[in-house]
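Purpose: get a first structural picture of the assembly so the mutagenesis plan has something to point at.
Setup: two entries, given in the order below. No constraints added.
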Amino acid sequence: EAQVTQNPRYLITVTGKKLTVTCSQNMNHEYMSWYRQDPGLGLRQIYYSMNVEVTDKGDVPEGYKVSRKEKRNFPLILESPSPNQTSLYFCASSSGQRTNTEAFFGQGTRLTVV
Amino acid sequence: KQEVTQIPAALSVPEGENLVLNCSFTDSAIYNLQWFRQDPGKGLTSLLLIQSSQREQTSGRLNASLDKSSGRSTLYIAASQPGDSATYLCAVVGNQFYFGTGTSLTVIP
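Result (structure tokens, whole complex):
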């Protein structure tokens, strides 16, 4: 089954404690991206990757890092989480950003930073 | 920067009604437009993808149209059912994905 898998689904952490949210897709997609969803603000793109070792900032990259060492994985790293990073996070993949193909989303990770 | 607006923000209709959700965007230089459904606390499920060269797409009771020149898309849901209750999001794809803030739909039995 084609899917995007995020882990963990729920995470509560303390300010400053480094964390990683994993994202994996089994569709051999080139394009992967991370979003955060906040009430009233909708989904905003954090980082995206057009292919292995190619990453770029989205609209709200501050406080986040990503890496793309393998095609299937695109982890999101919060080196020093802060309460304003409390949000619902989604990973997505598609076979290309500029091709006419649909995007697939993970089930989301609800992060709370206290 | 691309801005995507969805109107209305919330909609409540009785079961069986036909309804239209609206999505507008400011930059017509897009590659495609997607409509998604999001259930509370869940991820996004793709409903329809309209390529930039297309005017509409249909899937079952859903029909989505695209007018690039005017920066508008509509999602038409025929014969609404309680199971259609969810938040509907549109996303336009240019240099990156840009999402609207969604329309929260409630279908009353």
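Chain A has a mean pLDDT of 92.
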